[in-house]
Amino acid sequence: xxxxxxxxxxxxxxxxxxxxxxxxxxxxxNLFIIKDEPMPFDVPKELAEWSVKRTxxxxxxxxxxxxxxxxxxxxxxxxxxxxxxxxxLGYTTLLVANSEMLLKNxxxxxxxxxxxxxxxxxxxxxxxxxxxxxxxxxxxxxxIDFFGEFTADYxxxxxxxxxxxxxxxxxxxxxxxxxxxxxxxYNKNSMDFVVREVRENIKxxxxxxxxxxxxxxxxxxxxxxxxxxxxxxxxxxxxxPLY
Length: 243
Hints:
By secondary structure, the protein is α/β, with parallel strands linked by helices. It has one domain (2-233): Alpha-Beta Barrel (TIM Barrel), CATH 3.20.20.105. It has helices spanning 45-61, 76-88, 99-103, 106-119, 136-141, 150-157, 180-203, 207-215, 219-231, 233-237, and strands at residues 2-8, 11-16, 19-21, 23-25, 68-70, 93-96, 125-128, 146-148, 160-162, 167-169. The strands form three sheets. It has a five-stranded parallel sheet. β1 (2-8) and β2 (11-16) form a beta hairpin. The longest helix is centred in the last third of the chain and has 24 residues, at 180-203. It starts with a strand and ends in a 6-residue tail after the last helix.
């Protein structure tokens, strides 16, 4: 269970066992993910409902309490229903399914994450397994606690280098001549830097400044921030300090 120590808007500085969050799950192969029923993002609601039902059934039968998966495809009500049921079953870390597709659909991303964070127990940690590095600040701003190191490996396989603000294909941009292992290490260091940066900005109450800066580097991230500001001002103001 995550213990929230400090807020900066909806962003949370917390402690999860011995880890200070937001943080990166370093070795995803060793994570115990509860058996779920995967479903694509853009499917009819009937299929998404079936996925949620099967996921909850599997989670209820599991003898171990690992990381459970929030399914529901693009449907906010199903995502919330799934998360609440998993909360009732005692799961304290929940993985947001279809994370890569959510980044490409800012409206759905905002609606789903805000409604999840507003509805579920605040001591539940939310895990977003795939996120571009420049998206990490705004995801943390919306209440994501964990990110996945798989992002660094994935882009290294594509010969893409990650920086806090951009991605560069090294076939087109001859910035460095790196082998796969070197590139993977560089990408992991970039992710580590940004998550550390996020934590320090939360401590200093300046995360919003970082979010605005990084959202300027991506049309999808900027759309996410504008939708967040327009649709959910109360969510953003809920934890703002009074001066």
